[in-house]
Amino acid sequence: MERRAVKDFGSPPITETGMAMPETAARTRIQEKNISAILNAALEVFSGAGFRGATLDQIARAASLSKPNLLYYFKSKEAIHRALLSELLDTWLAPLRTLDSGGEPVDEIVRYVMRKLDMARELPRESRLFANEIVQGAPHILDIIEGPLKALVDEKASLIRKWAAEGRIAEVDPYHLIFSIWATTQHYADFDAQVRGILRPERDRHFDDAARFLTHLYRTALTPD
Amino acid sequence: MERRAVKDFGSPPITETGMAMPETAARTRIQEKNISAILNAALEVFSGAGFRGATLDQIARAASLSKPNLLYYFKSKEAIHRALLSELLDTWLAPLRTLDSGGEPVDEIVRYVMRKLDMARELPRESRLFANEIVQGAPHILDIIEGPLKALVDEKASLIRKWAAEGRIAEVDPYHLIFSIWATTQHYADFDAQVRGILRPERDRHFDDAARFLTHLYRTALTPD
DNA sequence: CGTGATCCTGACCAATTGGTCAAACTCTCC
DNA sequence: GGAGAGTTTGACCAATTGGTCAGGATCACG
């Protein structure tokens, strides 16, 4: 027997991919509210427990919905996860996209570092969501890494290489420069528990020190000669 | 009814903590072999799936044992995890311990970076084991972080600060310097999937480029004036 | 206000999973 | 070679978990 007819009674607002209708703007106010609540709850749970560690019950509870109601909006746990990653992908790549050829190269890169550090402070759950995923081999986003992400990084690596060739920044491997920026900034979100366990900071005070340190680190390493 | 009498027939070689007898040297050759196989299998599975994502069946299969036989050596999944973390803790802290006041400070720190990078290449599973744990809030090792690890980092931070005060390295925040070293080196183990997806390197060739980049990064940033 | 579409729920199910146990097997050492 | 400790296993169990379904409640709108 077929899973679900194309059109029948009680058909939930689910697309073929299992995602709640995203672009097809026809969303009820109720859908708007619940889908948003689900994705927010899913971010909380997935980022804190990883895909396999998260349970539908946890997500449902966090979203103040019953489990069957959850599955009315998304047809499976996988579907929620996919929708969440997909929703956050743009946010995630945005900072690197803004790295542009205008302006002083060293300033431009330091500005990128600061933006990434801000994101680690303001959106730590989003960072941990991707961290969980990648640490375990990126099973759900390998295609994105090897496709759009690689393309974007290749493009920016070219830019950095050009800056180096023009003598406007020091000669460094652009790929490893980008990796180091990701590592040092996301560290404050992904390894938050360790950072706080060691520093025991009041609030987010340590982010200011981190900003100062990273500014020094990259400015000295990138300034030519 | 009591869980298990202190001494009875069929009592497995399990200590109060649920760990297989570690220091009490009285281990059979069979115990030696199986416990080692279990811990190796557990490292493989836990590092790839996280604590909750790992199953006893997976670990048992990887160790070529039946599940009940697994539980003959360790009384629970938690116990295996604890034993594993405990076994690897020293390995994990060893590089930082070797940071000593002898030698030229900049060289000493760069040497530490290289050692950490070597570990990321040679022991990526161990790195990911801890990464998984910490990303999810370090529930099983928070006490270690706040205790022995913090103490060790505090000690080394003092040393670095002294070096800075003596003008032998640049004035940088020692804690954030250490965090950045952890982040940049462990990145190649923890985010291996992403690094390889973007670089598509042959074998581990990219580690040489990483070593060059990190050497430049820290040498320029730490050399005084 | 009625009707069709949307939304929600309790009850239920099969598979997975951590863990137990009694019994059988095997190794060691006298 | 035999006795007792150490080792292994098949069968089993309860709890959890992802997911289903039929029917009832509610909403939007003519």
Detail the topology: elements first, then pairings.
2 copies of one chain form a homodimer.
Chain A: H1 29-53, H2 56-62, H3 67-73, H4 77-97, H5 105-122, H6 124-135, H7 142-165, H8 174-190, H9 192-199, H10 206-222
Chain A binds a DNA duplex (30 and 30 nucleotides) through helix 1 and helix 3.
Summarize this entry quickly.
2 copies of one chain form a homodimer. The first copy, chain A, has 225 residues and is an all-alpha fold.
| Poorly predicted residue ranges of chain A | 1-10, 20-25
CATH superfamily of the largest domain in chain A: Tetracycline Repressor, domain 2
Number of strands of chain A: 0
Distance between the termini of chain A: 71 Å
CATH architecture assignment name of the largest domain in chain A: Orthogonal Bundle
Oligomer: homodimer
Number of helices of chain A: 10
What would you call the structural class of chain A?
mainly alpha
- Rounded to an integer in angstroms, the radius of gyration calculated over CA atoms of chain A is 21 Å
Biggest interface between chains: A-B, 52 and 52 residues
Provide the domain count of chain A.
2
**Main pleated-sheet profile of chain A:** none
What percentage of amino acids of chain A are in beta strands? under 5%
N-to-C series of helices and strands of chain A:
HHHHHHHHHH
| CATH third-level topology of the largest domain in chain A | Tetracycline Repressor, domain 2
Q: What is the average per-residue confidence, as pLDDT of chain A, rounded to a whole number?
A: 90
Shape of chain A from CA axes? globular
